[in-house]
């Protein structure tokens, strides 16, 4: 099964990404019917673990949504394991240097392009398990840019061969810049930082994604030229919708 995110980008289309913090295959199954292009299982800050990730993949699989994972850290063991489990993309937090970006690419690629260990226990259902060249071509490598150090090293990070996209974490980036950890910011100085990240990455042929809290802000980011936007997460969307309906009922 081809990587739907890569296909959308090749067609010049933006990608609307969902975020799964709830450790439930049923939640993933429901979310997968909402029209997302991709769904990312968050095993960094969500309450997911490896087995719930697999259950989420199983829940979303019949609906043609591209499965991705945000890993807890830039570490080869967990990165290889989520890929073996069927992830089509790896979003990795706190990639701050060219070396860390090169390490991430290496952990996601089989030799000779990387150092990923062979053992695709489940990912074979997405294609020929032994076709390591196809796996190397198919998997998206997406470092997160969320610190001032990463900004200082951005040019080098986006020019690392094998980096497909970068993903902006607005909360941590805000903290690193001395601001409150907020999302969907519209301060001109912060939007200027976002635009600089986007133009630097895209000049190197690298796509750019960002985490948002609303569909409206995601739409605005697409209009600014971003290639992927995530809208909140499953637990946040559930709570937002529930609060709205309870408020209506209570008058």
TrEMBL record:
- Spell out the molecular function terms from Gene Ontology: aldehyde-lyase activity; metal ion binding
HpcH/HpaI aldolase/citrate lyase domain span: 27-228
- Coiled-coil ranges (or none): none
Domain of life where this protein originates: Bacteria
Q: Which GO terms describe its cellular component?
A: cytoplasm
Q: Gene3D superfamilies under this entry?
A: Phosphoenolpyruvate-binding domains
Query: Which family does the UniProt entry place this protein in?
Result: Belongs to the HpcH/HpaI aldolase family.
Q: What is this protein called?
A: 2,4-dihydroxyhept-2-ene-1,7-dioic acid aldolase
Species annotation: Falsiroseomonas algicola
Instruction: Give the organism's phylogenetic lineage.
Output: Bacteria, Pseudomonadati, Pseudomonadota, Alphaproteobacteria, Acetobacterales
């Amino acid at each position: 099964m081809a990587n739907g995110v890569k296909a959308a980008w090749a067609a010049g289309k933006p990608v609307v990404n969902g975020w799964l913090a709830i450790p439930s295959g049923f939640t993933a199954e429901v979310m997968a019917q909402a029209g997302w292009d991709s769904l990312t299982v968050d095993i960094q800050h969500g309450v997911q673990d490896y087995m719930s990730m697999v259950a989420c993949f199983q829940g979303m699989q019949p609906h043609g949504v591209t499965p991705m994972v945000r890993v807890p850290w830039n570490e080869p063991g967990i990165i290889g394991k989520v890929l073996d489990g069927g992830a089509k993309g790896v979003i990795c937090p706190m990639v701050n240097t060219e070396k860390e970006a090169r390490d991430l690419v290496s952990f996601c690629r089989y030799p000779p392009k990387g150092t990923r260990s062979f053992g695709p226990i489940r990912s074979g259902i997405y294609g020929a398990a032994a076709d390591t060249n196809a796996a190397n071509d198919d998997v998206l490598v997406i470092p997160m840019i969320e610190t001032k150090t990463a900004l200082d090293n951005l040019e080098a990070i986006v020019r690392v061969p094998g980096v497909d996209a970068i993903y902006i974490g607005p909360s941590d980036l805000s903290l690193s810049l001395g601001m409150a950890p907020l999302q969907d910011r519209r301060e001109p100085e912060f939007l200027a930082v976002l635009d600089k990240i986007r133009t630097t990455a895209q000049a190197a042929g690298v796509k750019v994604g960002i985490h948002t809290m609303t569909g409206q802000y995601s739409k605005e980011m697409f209009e600014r030229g971003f290639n992927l936007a995530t809208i909140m997460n499953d637990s946040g969307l559930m709570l937002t919708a529930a609060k709205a309906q309870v408020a209506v009922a209570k008058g």
